[in-house]
From TrEMBL:
<dbReference type="GO" id="GO:0005634">
    <property type="term" value="C:nucleus"/>
</dbReference>
<dbReference type="Pfam" id="PF03690">
    <property type="entry name" value="MYG1_exonuc"/>
</dbReference>
<protein>
    <submittedName>
        <fullName>Uncharacterized protein</fullName>
    </submittedName>
</protein>
<dbReference type="InterPro" id="IPR003226">
    <property type="entry name" value="MYG1_exonuclease"/>
</dbReference>
<comment type="similarity">
    <text>Belongs to the MYG1 family.</text>
</comment>
<dbReference type="GO" id="GO:0005737">
    <property type="term" value="C:cytoplasm"/>
</dbReference>
Amino acid sequence: QKPAMHVVKRPRYAPRLDSALELVRALRVHSAAPSPAPRLLGTHDGHFHCDEALACAMLAMLPTFRSHELMRTRDAAALAACDVLVDVGGVYDPASHRYDHHQRGFSESLSECGRSVKLSSAGLVWRHHGLELLRELTRPEALPESDLRVLYNKVYGGFIEHIDGIDNGIEAGVGGKAYSVSTSLSARVGYLNPAWNEDVSADDTNALFAQAMELAAGELVSCVLRLCTEWWPARAIVARALDESEAAAAQLSGSERSARRQLLLLDGGGCPWQAHLLALEAERGVQPAACIKYVLYADARAQWRVQAVPQEEGSFSSKLPLPEPWRGLRDGSLSDAAAIPGCVFVHAAGFIGGHETKEGAMQLASKALTLLGAC
């Protein structure tokens, strides 16, 4: 009998990812302009960072720049002859494709999207070429411009912004660090640089930079395609559930009506709902007192979860954590405390709980609202 083989599951968007990475791998990297001179993208040589690796990779995936090659140098005359400069040159001028952020007085951010983090070369290239790149990566679908704009903002906030922040020395939060993150994309790109005590040629460093571009591109493209195939389709599900919640509440009165309006039932199981719910409520002008406090959905074991809505996407701080007396309890102890049979658990932090049935989960969530004075 043959031993069982380990099967590596590839995401359904893998062919698109492969096609995008082929474009990045095809970008030839030089230390000086070859002869005859091709059209060139330019960046600095020496130690590299994630921002210029990602910026160059994004450009390589665009039709406008697919015939270009890349030159890494600090020779000012050679750089001046390049069609595009990234992370070098001391100029930010999108009209002439100059994307540097090191010059004195530079303070650009993606303020048009409500962002305040200072842009690096990655953010600058995304600002001016991100929508075009999204159109390329999502082909053959022709997404509406409004959908592309949502994805553009989501990719920046969820992927590129932290690269901008790290490159510009901006801390992720205020106060001291509770722990260090040594495995971020920026860190892993940094590890590809030659060691300080390693003797390598310029060609060797260029080859390592090519690896850095492929690494950064792979994660960006995976992020984009994951959002398109997994995250974006959930918006319609959440919107429909919001409509159903309003319709169900309209059939009730008093405190029952108030409670039902604050519960979102996802009958199709869990989906990435947080960002969609918060955005849709903002679009609809839902007041804080009436906003959804708990989302209910079936888990992989066909039991039901009651999850508190976070203050913002990804936050561990909930708008209305489950009642403190329930937290950390399980099974019979929780059922006794809540006076609801069939309870499974409530997390010690109060952000999620579980029940054996949908009806029981509804009772648990409704009782939490009552106990906490939300209805």
